[in-house]
Fold each of these.
Amino acid sequence: MRQEIPTIVFSGRGENKAVLGTPSTHSSFAQSKTPITPSTHSLRLCFRFYPRISDYDVAQLKCVGPKLVPFFKTVSIYFVLFGDAERSSVFFCIAKCLPIVSLILFVLLHGMSLNEYYRYSRLILIGLISSCIGDAFLVWKHAYMNFECGLLMFAIAQFSYAKAFGFRPFSPYAGAVFVLLGFLVYSYLKPGMTGMMEYLAPFYLILICVMGWRAVARVQFFDDLWTWTKLCGCAGALCFMISDLTIAVDLFRFSVPFAHQIIMVTYYAAQFGISLSVVDSQVEEVIRIQTQDQSLDYKSHLEYISGHLHFDRRSRVFRPFASVKQE
């Protein structure tokens, strides 16, 4: 007997979007044999079911690679001109912000809309814009309240990233690790905090630890559901924590050797990794929306989808099976 399980049905190559449906919808769609290619937003469904998924990974990277050229160019320009130390000038501010502006354009070019399937991309975009404004404030961080304003903008960025990563699965063990890490860092930095930073720094520390926790939990290593985009988001979050920890230690405890280089390399790597995580975010959002009010969990949706799509080794695209699996 056929069981009507809510799942994902992908529209044709021209519309570039995923829609909701049931196995019966899948059946009619399967007859069209419409390929799902990297040109759509249905990137990376459940790689562990396909023996040569690395070919598909290459196709995805070729698709997004050209959009990242401005980022690598602007980062190179920044380190060539200001790799030794920071400056307090308009030109330095422009050079520092341009790589983040490039990532903002990358997220926009990948796709943006006000509908619910682009929720993840919108939150990452808000985080990038807030970070860019925060960077501008920190160029003149010794001016009155500029450092505090920059910290506030980065707090908004961390909140946006954490909200984008979501709270499913909850992963309490990973949360406990980040709580312990945050407590140890705060205990170490507290003697050097004065004035308003006694209140702002702990608040920001909580936000960035929550962001790191949600990025790690989202990967789902032990459920064998990790994807390269989730790994990029996780690596980006951890790099962000390293960058901000270096800033805090240099500010509150002692002068860190090569602090400028460490901070900026890890910061740009962090924003790069988090931005890359938008590549297959539309599929993730469809599954998230469908599993909110359904008995099926995230893994069940992916396993069901894997039963209706196979990887064509010759054309290197996903195609629907000719028939629908009977439950």
Note: The radius of gyration is 22 Å.
Amino acid sequence: MHPAMRLFDRYALRELIVPFGMGLLVFTMLMLGNVLYLTLRLIISRRAPAGLVIQYLLLKAPYVVSLAFPVAMVLAVSLAVNRLTRDFELPAIRPSGVPLWRAFSPFFLVGVWASLFTLWLNERVVPGANHASMQIVRHLMLEQPVPLLEANKFLRGGPDVYFYVKEVDPKASALRGVLIYRLRDGFPEVITAKKATYIKAARIWVLYDGFVHRFDREGRLLAEAPFETLELNLGETIEAFFSSVKTPEEMSSSELAKQIELLSKGGLSTEELEVAYHFKFAIPAACFVFALCAAPLSMHFAKAGSFGGVLLAVALVFVYYCLMQWARALGAEGILPPAVAAWSQNLLFALIGIGLVLWHERRG
């Protein structure tokens, strides 16, 4: 490697680190403030102690950091490239025949590192921390057990027993679109019901209008029996069920894949959960995609100054997250395939970045 390029790489990384760190800190604080605001009514109504609130925010921090990483990445790259262009550092190395992709390589490598770190965070730290934080919320809300449940949530009812609830009807204190997976004598059994109620005094679940499916160990259907009502005593209190509720944000990708497989066996729709599964990889990848797109765009608009760099970063994040929410909604409704819904905005921004690099290369 030419000594001049080593010097440029160090300078580029130095320009990147400070805005990345500041962006990560600012966006993490802003999003934690939003998390606190969303739970403020519950905290006040239940008179939660300050220590519990602080514990809740600390547990939410890994999830918030994983969302802030892509935002900090686009801000840092936009400001760093903007500065290097205005100070003629980038234009100075171009006449010596250095390809633009090589000049941008420090930003791309940091983008790859940020993506891998965010993926590790999402798989190893975020699920457990999110589950612990939601346990605090569920504990505060336990006075209203049935309304506590939300749509598309999983519950573990003891060893080898799983619940899935599609919808909740708080007025009727009923659950709708219920699936129960359990092992009986070593054989899988899937129970589906249109409606379920919990009788707290007797600790039993009453299921209405459903089917019992029994499978062999290879997953082949052995028997199917319809029922109008079915009483189940799983030996658990409603509080024990609530302690096992898990949303997709509280699961690793492998856990979520297992739940999707269970629901598919029961014939239930899994589009929304499949979209959540693909987003577990697509959001970390956004760190690299933002670096790929923001670098050539920032060089193109460098004349606008540092304010232009910040404005560009905000615009990129706004457009990306608007597209992401639209795609997520379309994927959950089955209009887009789950993989397309999760990865389409990454593909679009990556193509824009590659196209701009090639365009600048042709211009010289």
Note: Residues 143-148 have pLDDT under 50 and may be disordered.
Amino acid sequence: MPNRSLDIHLFQSGGGVFLDWSTRYQIAVGVARGLSYLHDGCRDRIIHCDVKPENILLGASLLPKIADFGMAKFVGRDFSRVLTTMRGTKGYLAPEWIGGTAITPKVDVYSYGMVLLELVSGRRNAGEQYCTASGSGDDDAAREELAFFPMEAARELVKGPGVVSVSSLLDGKLCGDADLVEVERACKVACWCIQDDEADRPTMGEVVQILEGVLDCDMPPLPRLLETIFGRPHSSTEQQTTTVSGTSTSQPFTSGSGSHN
């Protein structure tokens, strides 16, 4: 492919072309459509099992192609899941891989959510570190912690409208030049994609419809497993998390007010 893989343009300084927000959103929708076809448009369901920026190739017009099916699993239409050995790439693996349970196409949905957040931020989800000070007792020395962007994005979302602009989550290289409605939509659907329970994640077909504005989605709760691994949320967001979780419905994805047929 003439423009190589997505990671080169997102993460490597001077290694690729600048991706403006419109192009990033186009890539997000294109990859979602591709995965939806693999999951629901083929004779057998195809679970890619290794969705990540390195496996998203960009054509001459920066249109995405999903590549590297070396780890893919085929699931007959008569079956809903398949048992297989763990495969994929650290940072994009759904929790069910770790649990050793049979997988469904929802493992690709989880990986896609991680990629979508990287499209928003322009950096590896766990690729940067920051220093914080405890501010008490003998622990005044700054300690280094992993700045995990998915939790950062989820916490900002659950604060609710008017508390913080989603522009704070954007890649600084974009200089704020983005459709903030699309940015919020992308962050919300990404946080649904990375929910612990596969049943809470949308299908890739639903992801396409959400990104295209056909479906609306409720505010996602904080992913519990990631919250456990990367620390408790700030007190200002904890109450909001409980509220969102408590009011979530069995159908968080509904027809959008601006939907089209």
Note: Strands lie at 45-47, 56-58, 64-66, 73-75, 128-132, 143-147, 215-217, 253-255.
Amino acid sequence: MGANDSAYGLETYYNLSYTIVSLVFLSPFLGYTAAALLNERVHCTVGQRGVAFISSLCHLIAYILNCVHPPYPVLVVSFIFAGLGNGLADSAWNAWIGNLVNPNQLLGLLHGFYGVGAVISPLIASLLVADAGLPWYYFYYIMIGGAAIELVVCVACFWRSTGESFRLAKKQQPGGSSEKAGLWSVLSTMPSARITWTCAIFLLGYVGVEVALGGWVVTFMKEVRHAAPFSSSMTSTGFWLGITVGRVILGFITPLIGEKIAITSLPPNAKPWWKTTHLIHLNSLIASLILFSSTLGYDISLMNSLQSLPQWQTFMSYPEGIKLGFINALQNIASMLFLPVQAWSANRFGRKPTILAGYIFMILGVGLQSASQNPNTFIYSRVLVGIAGAWFQCAVVLVTEIAYPGHRSLVTAIYMCQYYAGSSLSAWISFAMRDVQSNWAWRVPVLMQIALPLLALPGTLRVPESPRWLISCGRVEEARGILVRFHAGGDEGSQLVGFEMEEISQGLALERKARREARWIDCVRTSGNRYRLFLSVSLGVFAQWNGGGVVSYYLTLILDTIGITSSTDQTLINGFLQLWNLVMSVVGACLVDRAGRRALFITSTVIMLISYIFITALSGSFVTTGTSAVGTAVIPFLFIYYAGYDIAFTPLLLAYPAEIWTTSLRAKGVAISMMSNYIALIFNQLINPIAFERISWKYYFVFLVVLLVVLVVVWKTYPETRGRSLEEIACIFDRKEVHVTYDAKMTTEERHTGKIEHREM
């Protein structure tokens, strides 16, 4: 539906003014009006299954008519069919989702994916029409495919939702058998009429402005600002991207502050965490630790950005092949080798001192790298930056162990999402320096590696040590004081703190009973730990060996072939892709506790597999035929592929291992996951160029097989951990070795909110 609400290339083809072409947008209004009048009768007659069939059929009719590029009056009629299909589907699916559990979040995602279609469609259309030079109606071939998928999927999902079942459900509602719940009743009966008319008037202005601006901004950029066609279309993509982000975020904010407050943006009566002093303090400190993920994203992405700068290429004597692969991989090799040392330090000296130790290596590494006078100094200073990155990885362990119980899953999932914030910053800083005619063009981006760690330093110095680590060292009262201050707001008698202390203490006591001191051999000593080890290693490998490192190999070639040759336009696409990654990874993080870890992993892998099949087929066809339209079609599937990757493998890469390992082995477990990730990444950096040189795009088939393996492994072996404390998660893996009992029982909701009702034991 989002992709439907635009029209491309009609002015030129039909030789009409923009005003006349804009009349085509009145056609969907007629379709929506008809849908409103027929909606109740259609539901009672054919049910939601019939709605799914009719709406999809209307879309197919409209898009098929558009593909034959009929006379303009016929085109106007075709959009009436599209509007009718949109109206029926819009009302049906909004109403259905509104009756589910957590409707605000789900409706936010529903309307967010409307925005996804609106974000991608200008990009596809501009590449087909503006750059590939194809007629405007070629875009609707893609829409036909989407409508066909809609027909199959929606009818299958609502196959049992017949008219009879809808009428029966309606009768079972209060007053359903006696009241006339038709359109006239909704528009005339108080108090529903007042709400209906108020929302209708608001939506009249909101949707009108939204759709008008989404199309008009392109014409404005071309005719008033005299921008290039492709750059003009990017403004529409950016416009819809902002709307998409707002819709998704609002879906998660609304249940926290209420619908009325969400609409007016005035939350005077709400008491969310940001109005709770001790949680504001705690989460602000955690936000400082999350910046270390952005640091990792900046450091790893920096080399990709530097390679686009001629000044850096000249300084480094144009490295290529195995030498370039070695330069890229050296930092990751250093991080991988020092992760075991970091894990030992975290258990021996504490989580916080381990993080702070990384600053020594970061300052030395960035100083040497930015002041390099020869290539060798630049190359080997990356070792120091890699070592610093290894020490900084302890931040996710500390975040996991100090987070408020109800926030732990979200903040640990958001941790890795900020990787893309750092990578975006790296790309845009390098882009801003591209015209500097000296070595400062690359020295400034290198020097800025220290910016994010320095920004995180004040919060890192004030963050408390892990209560779990303190209890493991016998510093029980110190740990209790931290929990009282940051989880209970100073309430010494807090039952939440009492429960946490009891749970942590008993879990650690059972660990000590099994072994006196955590060693690396303990990671394979028990069946539960071997299971954890398998999950940590496989997740680290899967996060790299899913085709993401090679899926965009031909992107630059494709853009060059279809006429997008300027570094500005190419960087613009890359910039939008980074923002897309950031948005979708945050969406995945917000769904961690709603959908669960397992569901996200499976959904992510399925999306990647399906999109990768299309990418492989289109890439092969492009290399064989050189047809620019085929190459262009790869780009939207890249966005879909990364959306699939981002919703699970970005937020859960560190969050999942951090929660499945016990306290004494948590630092080692996270280190193992990152080591496996670095090994897979180093493999990609060294082997992928050789493989592409030998077998070209056919290398994609390797990752199709890998994605199938990932799907099977995740389906068969990855357990769900949603709604459990860290100690309860241990019971999933150590059922025979661990049995934690509590003197005070708490429900999951009580533990997450910190509110405990009095109960007789």
Note: The chain has four domains: 10-173+185-264, 272-463, 466-514, 532-745.
